[in-house]
């Protein structure tokens, strides 16, 4: 496989695509809805996700986190497939492209979008790099919840509507939990090697048993959120019902996570990202037909 494909990690891209899909679909029936803005915001999110993946590859190699003992998917820098300089430059290019695309969104959405753009870029760099890497201090799941949940859904809705909405906050929370679950799988798999590298991820801080409980909460809470939104009158029944069908898949993943560890968690990483996409797509289909 092409090393650049390995570097951008396509299996993780649903974490960016799912919330942007939902945020835009929530605004689909608004008179001012713009398909162009929807596509641009989606492109910006994907570029930021690619930048995050490249940053992880580069900074984890430079800090010594990635070694030959790594259990996860192949990292192109650590394995020597691509030089650190090439990966760093590709990361910078992705961030620059995201910023240039983001300028169009800032022009459309104003200063709130500018603030989100700055926060997103710092988040991309600060996840595994900088003086206080979020991933090394147990904040990776929090970052995923905030940036790939709340910011992504509410921000993309705001771009279309010019204001936030309760439905956007609810869906941002629901998808944020699913993306936090992706991060938790990654950190639980790497517990042994992360301990040696001095990282203190959430999984390390709470232990394997509690990590399994947290995963269960992360994949089931989204359904509680949307059901509560329906009962309180903020969300219509059809999209909640369709998204609820993915609960079957969530239960399957939770059962697998409850008795799996180490390298055996690798397939579950992609499957959890797939859950985000299935949940987002089913909800979006239901919303279209409301």
Automatic annotation (TrEMBL):
Keyword Transmembrane: yes
Domain of life: Bacteria
Reactions that this protein is recorded to catalyse: an all-trans-polyprenyl diphosphate + 1,4-dihydroxy-2-naphthoate + H(+) = a 2-demethylmenaquinol + CO2 + diphosphate
Keyword field: Cell inner membrane, Cell membrane, Membrane, Menaquinone biosynthesis, Transferase, Transmembrane, Transmembrane helix
Membrane topology type: Multi-pass membrane protein
GO cellular component terms attached to this protein's record: plasma membrane
Pathway(s) where this gene product acts: Quinol/quinone metabolism; menaquinone biosynthesis; menaquinol from 1,4-dihydroxy-2-naphthoate: step 1/2
Purpose of the protein: Conversion of 1,4-dihydroxy-2-naphthoate (DHNA) to demethylmenaquinone (DMK).
Principal cellular location given in the protein's record: membrane
Entry's EC annotation: 2.5.1.74
Subcellular location: Cell membrane; Membrane
Protein name, UniProt field: 1,4-dihydroxy-2-naphthoate octaprenyltransferase
Enzyme class per UniProt: transferase
Coiled-coil intervals, chain numbering: none
Lineage summary: Bacteria, Pseudomonadati, Pseudomonadota, Gammaproteobacteria, Alteromonadales
Keyword Zinc: no
Family: Belongs to the MenA family. Type 1 subfamily.
InterPro entries registered for this protein in UniProt: MenA (IPR004657), UbiA_prenyltransferase (IPR000537), UbiA_sf (IPR044878), UBIAD1 (IPR026046)
């Amino acid at each position: 496989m092409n090393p650049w494909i390995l570097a951008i990690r396509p299996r993780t891209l649903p974490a960016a695509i799912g919330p942007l899909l939902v945020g835009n679909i929530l605004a689909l029936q608004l008179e001012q809805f713009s398909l162009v803005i929807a596509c641009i915001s989606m492109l910006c999110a994907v570029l930021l996700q690619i930048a995050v993946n490249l940053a992880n590859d580069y900074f984890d190699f430079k800090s010594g986190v990635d070694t030959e003992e790594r259990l996860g998917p192949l990292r192109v820098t650590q394995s020597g497939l691509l030089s650190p300089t090439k990966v760093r430059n590709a990361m910078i290019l992705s961030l620059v492209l995201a910023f240039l695309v983001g300028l169009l969104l800032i022009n459309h959405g104003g200063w709130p979008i500018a603030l989100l753009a700055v926060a997103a870029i710092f988040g991309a760099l600060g996840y595994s790099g900088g003086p206080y890497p979020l991933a090394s201090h147990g904040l990776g799941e929090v970052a995923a919840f905030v940036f790939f949940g709340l910011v992504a859904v509410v921000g993309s809705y705001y771009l279309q509507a010019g204001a936030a909405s309760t439905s956007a906050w609810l869906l941002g929370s629901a998808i944020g939990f699913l993306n936090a679950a992706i991060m938790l799988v990654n950190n639980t798999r790497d517990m042994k090697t992360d301990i040696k590298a001095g990282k203190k991820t959430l999984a390390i801080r709470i232990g394997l048993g509690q990590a399994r409980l947290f995963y269960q909460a992360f994949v089931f809470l989204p359904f509680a959120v949307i059901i509560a939104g329906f009962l309180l009158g903020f969300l219509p029944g059809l999209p909640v019902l369709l998204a609820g069908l993915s609960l079957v898949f969530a239960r399957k993943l939770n059962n697998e996570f409850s008795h799996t560890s180490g390298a055996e968690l690798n397939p579950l990483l992609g499957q959890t990202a797939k859950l985000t996409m299935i949940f987002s797509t089913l909800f979006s289909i239901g919303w279209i037909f409301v």
